[in-house]
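Re: [help] complex structure
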Amino acid sequence: MKLFITALIGSFLLYQTASANPDTAQLVPRTWNGQKYGCKCYFGDQCWPDSRTWNALNTTVDGNLAVYVPPEAACHTFFNGTLGTISTYDQAKCDTVTANYSSEKWITDQDMLLLWRYWTNSTCLPTTESSSPCTLGYYGVYLLKATKIAHIKAGVDFARRNNIRLVVRNSGHDFVGRSTGWGALVINTHSFQDIKFVDKWDAPGGYSGGAVTIAAGVQGRPLLRQAVAQKPPVTVVTGECPTVGVAGGYVQGGGHGPLTTQLGFAADNALSFDVITADGEYVTANAKENPDLFWALKGGGPAAFAVVVSATFKTFPEMRSAGATLYINSTHVTNETLYWEGVRIFHSHANSFVDAGLYVYFTITPLTLRVRPWVAFNQTAAGLDAILAPFKADLTAAGIPFENTPAKEYTTFFDLYIDLFEDESGGTPMLTSGWMFSRQDIAANNDGIITAFKKAISPREDLVNKGYMVGHLWNAGYGVPVPNSATNPRFRDAANLILYNLPVPTNATLEQKADIEDLLANTLDRTMRATGPKGCAYINEADPLQENWQDHFWGPDVYPKLLETRKKWDPHGVFYAISTPGTEDWEVIEYGTRLCKKL
Ligand SMILES: Cc1cc2nc3c(=O)[nH]c(=O)nc-3n(C[C@H](O)[C@H](O)[C@H](O)COP(=O)(O)OP(=O)(O)OC[C@H]3O[C@@H](n4cnc5c(N)ncnc54)[C@H](O)[C@@H]3O)c2cc1C
Ligand SMILES: *[C@@H]1O[C@H](CO)[C@@H](O)[C@H](O)[C@H]1NC(C)=O
Ligand SMILES: *[C@@H]1O[C@H](CO)[C@@H](O)[C@H](O)[C@H]1NC(C)=O
Ligand SMILES: *[C@@H]1O[C@H](CO)[C@@H](O)[C@H](O)[C@H]1NC(C)=O
Ligand SMILES: *[C@@H]1O[C@H](CO)[C@@H](O)[C@H](O)[C@H]1NC(C)=O
Ligand SMILES: *[C@@H]1O[C@H](CO)[C@@H](O)[C@H](O)[C@H]1NC(C)=O
Ligand SMILES: *[C@@H]1O[C@H](CO)[C@@H](O)[C@H](O)[C@H]1NC(C)=O
Ligand SMILES: *[C@@H]1O[C@H](CO)[C@@H](O)[C@H](O)[C@H]1NC(C)=O
Ligand SMILES: *[C@@H]1O[C@H](CO)[C@@H](O)[C@H](O)[C@H]1NC(C)=O
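Output below.
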């Protein structure tokens, strides 16, 4: 007890002396490349809390604070962590890690591991060479495995008062490394799994239909599984990917999925959020209480305005649905010209698919177009076959062989979801970007867009056939023509949100990484924008290093209001995620390590 009190007094004095505002610590001065910065506090800095202070936090969070050791360390003799070196070799654990290393479900259940590893720096990998090095890379130093709302609050307060970089890690799906950060305190929200349905939503906002309140850690598939079990069965807008969280980065970025053409973004369907603010307050944000924060949380950018503790979404009656698949790959065609003609024909029908209310998920890799699935919510198999007939007739007329299942009808959308959507494998060291092609651009310039796709697959002589694309045909303006969320209004004329990925070897040097980052931002991103000038980019699935990200992610009607909201709710930068509103002055310097504000 005595120690605890001393620690409290100690930390109180620390931030008393550190800053004019007793509750917000001062940034640490630093100069890099001739520029003056004020940085977050890191291990080795004088301001770094001593062990008593960390222990006090640990007590507040019921012992749920840990010094993070990556699971891969089990394959290595030593883990050379920020706080010291420890012996870590454990053959059995190493075997488990190695066997599950690309399992989406296993990865999301880990404390800090990310599905897309580029931004972790890949400095501790499963191996049979136990003497190879294992260091932390860009993972956080401390892990706070929150199980209560008070733990999240304690983490936010601690980070704010001690000027520590704060990161929230939910499912670890982030493509651009936003759920990790060098030297950070990472709050893991995976334990928050409550789900509660109501038949009639009884709160402000002028909506009185069905709703579901979910805790921060709930993932798509379990939510849909419980939704369909309601009487009568209902459904919710979630991602196509079964393990993406719903209330975390997904809805805060907008959140699209198989029902988006019919029902809009997840953000369009959010009714209320309970959050911990940067000041450590537990508040509700909805149409009546804190409406500016409510609006910003609906697509204004992940980890930018508050930590979401729970969120409420509209539910919709489950409906009979139809699905279909189609493949064109080297089993069917080996002539590249013919293959790309197949892709061109497919994409020339994108507008007709979304205009018929469909959602389509597909991948393009060298000599493989895999369309799995077409989703026709609230439509029959015969209806879907009729929509697809002109497209298939065009393929046949062009002499392009393909493999296709006739449309299949399902009693519910959930049955289709389980049958046709698959877990994806994690661990890919890739750089990701994406662009939304509007209906107008596809109507005007489909051939130009296909030329851009070819470039994304083979962007340079040394990268021929190295690209990998994932497309989603949907139009968020089909069922919800006017945005009610902080999403880019251009999405209301969307037809294809397509991701383009480039591999980066895990052992790449800093120079090699900079080269690929440059290729993506300054060649591919620009090519996509030039061929689809009426499109925009989706913050969760785009290159954070692109120029004019404010315009591409939100546009001139939305961004200024988001900036204002950020300044109001997080004036001191307690939260940070790259290329989110108000981060213009913030930069991660010194080769991906220190988070600092330009002075
Ligand atoms: C395989 C795969 C498939 C995908 N499919 C889709 C899709 O169909 N539709 C779609 O829209 N997107 C999709 N995404 C992108 C997805 O929306 C983003 O990766 C999103 O950031 C995931 O959010 P998360 O909370 O689950 O993940 P995390 O990586 O844990 O977190 C992502 C970001 O959100 C922040 N965050 C997490 N929880 C909270 C919280 N409670 N409060 C405040 N901030 C929080 C984190 O700090 C981080 O900045 C996919 C991604 C992958 C890898
Ligand atoms: C926090 O407390 C728990 C339980 O006492 C302990 O196991 C853990 O090691 C502590 N964490 C730190 C960082 O000291
Ligand atoms: C991890 O791998 C082992 C061995 O292959 C397997 O038995 C186990 O089920 C996997 N665990 C998870 C959570 O996937
Ligand atoms: C890690 O620490 C061990 C033990 O001190 C040392 O032998 C090894 O060289 C260190 N490795 C790295 C990568 O720093
Ligand atoms: C990150 O990786 C690069 C190699 O690409 C390496 O030079 C650098 O030291 C690493 N940084 C950290 C913090 O792991
Ligand atoms: C082509 O697609 C079919 C259908 O999925 C699959 O059975 C076949 O293995 C694929 N061929 C190649 C070469 O990928
Ligand atoms: C590939 O197909 C195109 C278009 O049909 C044709 O012009 C070309 O000759 C074919 N190439 C080969 C090598 O068969
Ligand atoms: C389903 O389709 C019918 C007929 O087209 C329409 O009236 C109804 O509103 C649709 N329901 C949903 C939930 O989309
Ligand atoms: C990375 O590994 C590959 C394959 O082992 C090797 O060819 C390449 O030279 C390595 N690159 C660097 C920068 O070490």
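Residues 2-189+588-598 form one domain.
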